[in-house]
Amino acid sequence: MKKWFVLHRKEWLEMTLNYKIIWIPLIFVLFGLMQPITSYYMPEILKNASNLPEGSIIQIPMPTSGEVLTQTMGQFNQIGVLVLVLAFMGIVSSERRSGMIKAILVKPVSYPSYITSKWMSVVLLSAGSVFLGMLASWYYTVLLIGDFPFIDMVKGTLIYFIWILFIVTFTVFLSSFLKSSGFVAAFTLVLSILLSLLTSLFEKWMEWSPAQLTNAAASLFMAGDIEGPLLLPLITTVILTALFLYLATSRKSSV
Amino acid sequence: MNFNFEINWALLAPLIVIQAILLIIALFDLVKTEKTNGPKWMWVLIVLLIATFGPILYFVIGKKRD
Amino acid sequence: MEVQSLTKSFGKHVAVNDLSFSIEEGHCVALLGANGAGKTTTLEMLASLQKPTKGSVSFLGVEKKDFREDIGYLPQYPVFFSWMNAMEYLVLMGELSGMSKAKAMARADELLELLGIADAKKRKIGGFSGGMKQRLGIAQALIHEPKLLMLDEPVSALDPVGRREILELMKLLKETTTILFSTHILHDAEEVCDDVIMIHKGELAVSGSLSELRRKHQEDVIVIAADENLDAWAGSIESWDVVSKVISANDKVEIYVKSVAEARTQLLAEINEKQLPITSFTVGQTSLEGLFMEVVGR
């Protein structure tokens, strides 16, 4: 266990030195802040941008707080997921390619602890980024748009994060199997887009889909209550995440 | 196009600060790093000229991993 | 260390086939073979970096799958975290071996001193030269005081100066540690080692102590050079009892003999009698190079 922490600490040191520890959370906070601000200024911007004759009145309904938070989550699902996947695609594969993995495994360190120490650092940094981003978004939304219960924001973010957990675990899993970081990113992004797309197209058959978690969080934000499936996607996602993590740690025939 | 509504700069300050931090870290890293994917000067231009996304692009695809 | 019928196959290709050998404590052993003979695969299996397809390894009488606690290994192309300094790297490797931070630091200091890179201890590894990296690699392998030090081609990537330094270092280390190192250069093996294990195409060819191999495989040879081609004459002496083999090329004849003294007398008499126009007459011994070439060339 002590060796696991040594490896884990090495990951954090590396993420500090290549500034991942700063820029990944900052990007989430940036996009978290941007959403309520654009919503707030949108009517003004539109009014100024369109050349309407003086005196005409345009009515643009201000979105509700819940809608703004849902939009933030949508942003995170696109740019956020893209950033996380690209940032962590090489977490194992680049060390395998460079031979660094050998330098570590010549010491009496188990392969599962090597992988899980990396996975944990990815999960913690992703969690921190998503929560900080949502917190920032919530704060500005309350300030500019209207009140929203803090506890609901936390609950929704927790549900949404399980989906992110699934995505980053899949990234680590592919990274431990493929040599090319590019393929890792491509396959993970295709999976995430495909799952989201199929889930919205065939809602009936995709109730189990991990992407349903985003819908559940959205309904919590907008209606204050979760409509639709939650338990089923939660269970499948947790099982799939555990499975991919297990598979990631099980390859050791040659390094 | 002219904006004739009040912009609350205090509100926007965090956005500007975050963008500035991203820009500075990206430039600092660019100076320190030996190799990038593609020419260095190109990345300097990208980081400086493309707001918000320039530094992000540099971090995710510009850095060469060793 | 006892290695029993170690085998590794990748699909149809057999990289190491039924390899058995033993390493005695305190000895320095060279694993000798041409490129692609299976040296690295063998070492990586011993270091638990690859799983053997078949076979077993026992260490000090204990059979296990994982000997990383007892083995220090330097890969052929060692890589380091270039953003770490030498000290940080060694402490990390020490801690990964289960040492406490304080103990790892003390040991790292000691090793950096021993390997002559103490003044570079706070420098980033990214700026190290090939020889320094190799030293750091050896330090890394020694950090947890392993019972066996394994080095994969430790000198082949180095320039002559670096090569000399590492060989001298190995001579120093073999006083205190059991060493197994792979090389494709016989000369390096002869210089630092007691024992050699020659492998060819994944199979054991010859193994034993160098002195024993010399005794067994070294032959006395008399080389005669002359002004004219001696092919015809060379053919005529092949049937002599004292001669085992004759190789004639251009103006030179190599005569492998069973007894130097006897052959010398007979040959000199013959030369005198036939008035052969010789320019030199040399008595010597074949080097192990011949044996090595024979093994590798098979």
UniProtKB/TrEMBL annotation, chain A:
It comes from the Bacteria. GO terms for cellular component: plasma membrane. Keywords: Membrane, Transmembrane, Transmembrane helix. GO terms for molecular function: ABC-type transporter activity. The chain crosses the membrane at residues 21-42, 75-92, 119-140, 160-178, 183-202, 230-249. This is ABC-2 type transport system permease protein. It comes from Ureibacillus acetophenoni. The lineage of its organism: Bacteria, Bacillati, Bacillota, Bacilli, Bacillales.
From TrEMBL, chain B:
The chain crosses the membrane at residues 7-28, 40-61. GO terms for cellular component: plasma membrane. Pfam families: PLDc_N (PF13396). Residues 21-62 form the Cardiolipin synthase N-terminal domain. Keywords: Cell membrane, Membrane, Transmembrane, Transmembrane helix. It is found in: Cell membrane. This is Phospholipase D-like protein. It comes from the Bacteria. It is a multi-pass membrane protein.
TrEMBL record, chain C:
Residues 1-226 form the ABC transporter domain. Pfam families: ABC_tran, DrrA1-3_C. Keywords: ATP-binding, Nucleotide-binding, Transport. It comes from the Bacteria. Transmembrane segments: none annotated. Gene3D superfamilies: P-loop containing nucleotide triphosphate hydrolases. GO terms for molecular function: ATP binding; ATP hydrolysis activity. Belongs to the ABC transporter superfamily. This is ABC-2 type transport system ATP-binding protein.
